[in-house]
């Protein structure tokens, strides 16, 4: 097309306007197209369908992602059940006529599993006889919002007539076990009618002001003894207004991504530092008060970010994960322990059993679930997987299906995927995977199994695992890669030569690291995000081989993180998406239905001269979707030759994510520093010319059917 044609002038004007909107010099938009910048999109030769699960989410409870984050319970250690640290999160009030004693006891507890509670004794009546809960780096509360406070109380000897409850701003920091001080009172009430037996009390608190760091203060009314357990402060404003729901703004950020799947609960917490610390899904369902907390595998992993108060309450458990998947329209992808603790820690392994090695299946003896089992064999882990599928999909007449129904979800969750092991490697994993896989397939042949290729994207262990898993006809092989931004740009063709038949690929964990893997100095920079966008064109071009992909980790609390970078950051009140989040969202909200082949002019490969591209057809909307990454400080005109397109429309839509500064990041104060901008552009023929902004990721939606 001649550059002086009306169409070219209109396209150039669009590019100039876009550069202006992005704050870019207009002169940068005037570079002429070259042969290498001509992309032929073969609309009439469609490739593989884009899997509905192509772009999804990986959730792990790291960086306070669950307790203190997505799960909005404001009280830390509400049931005093954390072994060896029963008062973690709690402090006695300092000064005045305080408590005579406060201790954790097990005398006639609420239940066999929730068998610890706090016993408070005051020698004399006074306003300072009590405890303060600090929350998760404070408690975020909003003015006028409603918070349900509940507690189990039992009166002992003496004349305690009630419990005073106050929500207040945190006072000055102190040290030692008796370090709680008070700030401005935000809400308060008094509970009366105490009895000599356990009784649950519930009241609604409505703060008079917003505070990011509030605390909960409980004091005795009168002298004597009072037993306290299961202390909860929970916002009424939860997603879908559920009683044990999730934090609204964080769920909305996930739903806005239109994710194809949700992988949970991890990640390395699936494995645990030891097998006794592994995640056991059966301990995460049922009555909230009976879910026993467990040390979080990440609490002491990094000396530079030690978090000794990091525990899992399991208020967000497998039932809630399945509900969340349903809420955001994502396929649930639970990952289960394969009988191996984290190989970066203890490498503890459950022994193989004769029944397991002989081909465990529906006719093999079922290993009974035992919460206190000290030496589980592989059979225990296999049975847990079979029971999980029954919990998700079984009828009300089944043992585990009945438990789901009792929790309030009569319909099956329609589980289609299950992961065997998280990130294990070596022959020890493969010898456990095989009987595990055979047992699941024998009873549930339609379940797709996700297997592990290990923590590295190459090397001898990776190669051997991949070869063996393909021999075993694994449906999905999970590959992980954390690397510098340039690795992602250089490996855009990673899957070009993978087999088109047999096992499919799940890019289960990936993120560009601005400094180094595991460095506390990593940033969610635009350089990292645009490099991931470039890499993802290679995933989309190979949709016949790659059917799932997810960035990791998902969430991080700004005051309580262990690992960087992360997709979404939050504090106790606010949250924001990183540039990486917007890259993921632009892919997941523009997936298309069918892959379209893209060829560069002059025989250039994808990524040559730092121009990256992929294309799909969206048969639902009748559009051609083109994704373009210009990793260059200069604007770049491109020509898109749409071969065989039909019923071409006149106006296209562009979504552009760009920044002149590759080190740019988003923050709580500047959440939109790097964020997408929407534009429209004119389409007058099947040769569409468009000018890409410098350092940009652009999604074009062109009306045209194939």
TrEMBL record:
Residues 352-371 are annotated as: Disordered. Residues 508-696 form the Alpha-L-arabinofuranosidase C-terminal domain. It catalyses: Hydrolysis of terminal non-reducing alpha-L-arabinofuranoside residues in alpha-L-arabinosides. The keyword Signal applies. Its EC number is 3.2.1.55. It holds the Pfam family ASD1_dom. This is non-reducing end alpha-L-arabinofuranosidase. Belongs to the glycosyl hydrolase 51 family. It is an enzyme of class 3 (hydrolase). Residues 1-29 form the signal peptide. Keywords: Glycoprotein, Hydrolase, Signal. Residues 353-369 have a biased composition (Low complexity).
